[in-house]
Amino acid sequence: MDLFDLSGRTAIITGGNRGLGLAMARGLAKAGANVAIWARNEARNAAARTELAALGKGEAITLTCDIAAEEDIAAAMAATLSALGRVDICFANAGISGAGTAIADITTEGWDHTMAINTRGAALVYKHVTRHMITRAQDGDAGGKLIATSSGQSIMGVNRSSDYAASKAALNGLTRAASFELARHQITANALLFGYYETDITAKADPRFGEWMQKRIPLRRPGDHAGLEGLAVFFASSHSDYITGQCLPVDGGLCIS
């Protein structure tokens, strides 16, 4: 018996055409889930779809979607339901690194843009996904999984990252509120507070930052993308049904160092 078979289940992953999101999508596809990637870059979407389609028996679709625009979210949700019939799992993964300004240099535009993507975007994705999940529950088909990509910066301080840290702390709050409000429909909500992973975003940082981080992480290495596959499958599966409202650091011990 395969304890983590996701056949017949459908998962949305925003920003899932690269980095952490694509790593998690690989695990879901290998477990048999149908996977819908919502992301902005059409070329990366196409490459992700080709890769995922070759990994499992489920379907893989990609939809061009900017989660800063609610009309894009609504259209992507409608297209996902049309193509795949239902949504059981939603990974609110899309995010940006923030404006990178010191607190004394915060701008309204920079702050609002970070919040629009990292916090409001996730909330609006949840709005449209949970409407579908609640309707299913009212029809006798209860259950759903909401998993947010948060950050260790939501509970730790980093220079020139106040907007990003605040946006992810707000995402943690959204997670806890959603878990409480939606429990009656057997919908769980959790957040994964990722530490230092090598991604396109970290590649743009000063190399000294990566060196410093690895010295500070108790396990003395960045996170491995392959390990995210099983993590995603666990939180998407029935084996995490009794876990909700949690903000779990996934950081090699960084938050306790």
Average pLDDT works out at 95
Q: Which CATH architecture would you pick?
A: 3-Layer(aba) Sandwich
| Name of the CATH first level | Alpha Beta
- Unreliable sequence segments: none
Side by side, the strands of the main sheet go 3-2-1-4-5-6-7
Give a count of the beta strands, DSSP E runs of length 2 or more. 7
Question: What series of H and E elements makes up the topology?
Answer: EHEHEHEHEHEHHHE
CATH topology: Rossmann fold
CATH homology superfamily: NAD(P)-binding Rossmann-like Domain
Shape: globular
Strand content: 15-25%
**Helical element count?**
8
Q: What's the main sheet like?
A: 7 strands, parallel
Q: How many structural domains are formed by the residues?
A: 1
Fraction in helix: 40-55%
Rg from alpha-carbon coordinates = 17 Å
Organism: Erythrobacter sanguineus
Keywords: Oxidoreductase
GO molecular function, one term: quinone binding
InterPro entries: KR_dom (IPR057326), NAD(P)-bd_dom_sf (IPR036291), Sc_DH/Rdtase_CS (IPR020904), SDR_fam (IPR002347)
